[in-house]
Write a structure and sequence with these properties.
alpha/beta; seven-stranded mixed beta sheet
Length: about 260
């Protein structure tokens, strides 16, 4: 297990309330296998980019980042901020709401850029939603993490994670809390090398689409490689694309009785 760092600076009201509640719950339900956590920078602005396979893995990811001495700031769907239990914590902890597939999403990007420039650790799920890949592999990524990194010059630290879906299956509302504890493995990689791409962007200019696509693909390749190492399996040659498969970009892909049963 990775070495724990002492948190630098005050954690604020949101984390002061949430940590004593959430950490014991995770200790009781999750067997942690966290590797190379000290690759997360101890200070300075950065992006931590992870794959997403359960509604519960933002909590395990926050635990990983927090125990490495950083306060995680998430780009999170705006609906979470209106829920009775999670919403107040999200607001108090300074998380960043995203109005997905709307013009307001640009405001979330700008807020993430400013957070990184202020020296904060921003956590991004490049897939944008829980994976739809039938075998749980990461999907094709979106450009947010890449654009933040290209705009700010900050490091992008990839993390592959696996096992949270055993605690709470994708798009399910029914957690499996009975013993034994569910093993969650999180492997932190070296920062993704984007220096040559940054060098192709003129000072003050926006990167062109080709550069953004290449940066996004490098980030996703790094994440997929870490997941493959955890699973000790060969990943698919082509990442799953929900749009190409005729699925909605966001939300529960299931319909009818199965979706209602899993949400109960």
């Amino acid at each position: 297990m990775s070495v724990v760092r002492r948190l630098q600076g005050p954690r604020g009201l949101g984390f002061s309330v949430a940590v004593p509640i959430i950490k014991p719950l995770l200790w009781a339900t999750v067997s942690r296998d966290w590797r190379e956590g000290l690759r997360i920078p101890a200070e300075g602005g950065c992006v931590v980019a992870l794959n997403h396979n359960s509604h519960v893995d933002p909590l395990t990811a926050a635990h990983l980042v927090y125990d490495r001495g950083r306060l995680p700031r998430y780009l999170a769907k705006s609906g979470l901020f209106t829920t009775p239990v999670i919403g107040p914590f999200m607001r108090a902890a300074g998380q960043i709401p995203v109005e997905r597939e709307s013009a307001a999403a640009a405001g979330a990007f700008d807020a993430a850029v400013e957070a990184v420039r202020a020296g904060e650790c921003v956590v991004v799920y490049p897939e944008g939603t829980i994976t739809r890949d039938p075998d749980g592999w990461p999907m094709r990524g979106k450009s947010g993490a890449a654009r933040i990194a290209l705009r700010t010059g900050c490091p992008v630290v990839p993390v592959g994670q696996w096992g949270a879906q055993a605690l709470l299956a994708p798009y399910s509302g029914r957690p499996h809390l009975l013993p034994p504890r569910k093993r969650v493995t999180m492997l932190v990689g070296e920062p993704v090398d984007l220096d040559d791409l940054r060098a192709r962007v003129a000072p003050g200019a926006e990167p062109d689409a080709e550069i953004v696509v290449e940066a996004t693909e490098r980030i996703m390749r790094a994440i997929v490689g870490l997941v493959a190492e955890i699973r000790d399996e060969v990943p698919p040659a082509t990442l799953f694309d929900p749009r190409a498969a005729g699925q909605r970009a966001f939300g529960n892909p299931k319909r009818g009785p199965q979706a209602r049963e899993e949400a109960s």
